[in-house]
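Lab notes, practical 5.
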Amino acid sequence: MLTLASNKQSLSLKTDIDQIAAVTSVALLHASFERNKAEPTAARSVELTAKQALCLKWSAEGKSMRAIATIENMSYGNVNFHINNAKKALDATSLPQATALATKLKLI
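Output from the prediction step:
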């Protein structure tokens, strides 16, 4: 069992916390999560349209937006539209972040 409770109103890192023990505890906790292949318990409900997923899939393969437009016979503006909507759906600030999130969430 892990608890972060204390009867003190505030703690000083220098005098109240054994830094070596704290670092060791965090490392052991992290190792346990890794060993057990722990997954988040709260599922993120993100849905992408077929075009959004397709554009992100091509992006994940290293294609530029112009290349995606050519491959899919779409306008550059249309690709940009789908990618921007995918970024909003994933709450991502950049195309690489959106691509990584979509991959991690197995949406592409």
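Observations recorded by the TA: Residues 75 and 100 are 24 Å apart (CA to CA). The mean pLDDT is 85.
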